[in-house]
Amino acid sequence: MSRSSGNRRRPLLRAVAFDLDGTLIDSFADLTAAVNGVREHYRLPPISQNEVRRHVGQGAPELVRRAVPVPPVEQGAAHARFLDFYDRNLLHSTRPYPGVEAVLQGLTGLPLGVITNKPIAQTEAILRGLGWTGRFAVVLGGDSLSAKKPDPLPVIEFLRRTGVKAGETIMVGDSPADICAGQAAGTLTAAVVYGNTARDDLAALNPAFLLDDLAELLDFPR
Fold first, then answer.
1. What sign does the dihedral 173-175-180-181 (CA atoms) show?
2. 113 and 129: one domain?
3. DSSP reduced 3-state for 191
4. CATH number of the domain enclosing 39
5. Amino acid 56: pLDDT
6. CA-CA distance, 218 to 215, in Å (whole number)?
7. Are 49 and 145 in contact (CB under 8 A)?
8. Given this model, what pLDDT does residue 8 score?
9. CA-to-CA distance for 180 and 171, rounded, in angstroms?
10. From CA 168, how far away is CA 161, in angstroms rounded?
11. Which residue segment(s) compose the domain that 67 sits in?
């Protein structure tokens, strides 16, 4: 485990909140297919999965705005087309990252959460399709509250619902939005380096921990 904060000891861990895309699941193939389905409608050439990855993290409206360059008057319709296409193909290629199932099992007994900017209906459908219904004490999508990551409100709501102190909670994610939300809410933060953001870019945000492998969470005392 690499720590951005030097040799700090692993703290007591009482709750864990996870981002979804790029942290627990690899959904980029399905997101790319949905983006390119919309682009095809507008007679735009397809773009690569790597290009789509650069636009993920701020929610579906922002993904569509960046990846489907149409006039502002068309953005609402483009977003609706994206949601329709993606809703019908949520689990075509999407799978948990290797080892995630074992980590979730190993954390049994702690209140776990999913905090994502993905719409809550899609989030719940994916969790259901992966057999994760009931695995998480709290599930919050980008439209669950009045603000989404990087605003701290979803993380604060997770703390409220679980009753766990911020200093005994860790927010785990792969994007600046995840780390900034956790830091602003006062929780510990862990950035996974296998997701959607380069290691150096994550390190520059000064998360408490950089994780090469999600299984490193199992080393925390609890």
1. negative
2. yes
3. strand
4. 1.10.150
5. 80
6. 6
7. no
8. 56
9. 10
10. 14
11. 28-87
Domain edge (last residue) among 36, 54, 87: 87
At 40 the pLDDT is: 96
97/16 Cα distance (integer angstroms): 17
Per-residue pLDDT at 135: 95
- Examine the domain organization and report whether 77 and 150 are in the same domain: no
Beta bridge partners of 188: 170
30 as an active site residue: the answer is no
H helical segments located in the chain: 28-41, 49-53, 60-67, 72-87, 100-106, 120-129, 153-162, 176-185, 199-203
> Hey, what are 2's tokens?
């690499």
β-bridge pairing 169-173 and 138-140: unpaired
Tokens 């949520």 correspond to: 90
Q: How far is CA 153 from CA 40, 60, 143, 145, in A?
A: 36, 19, 12, 8
Which regions of the chain are under pLDDT 50? 1-7
209-211 β-sheet, strand order = 138-140, 112-115, 15-18, 169-173, 188-192, 209-211
Which pTM value belongs to this model?
0.90
Pairing of strands 95-96, 25-26: antiparallel
Residue 211, φ and ψ in degrees, nearest 5: -110, 120
- 67: which strand partners? none
Neighbours of 197 (CB within 10 A): 25
Helix (H) or strand (E) holding 5: none
Per the omega criterion (within 30 degrees of 0), is the bond before 96 cis? Answer: no
Active-site residue, from 19, 21, 30, 174: 19
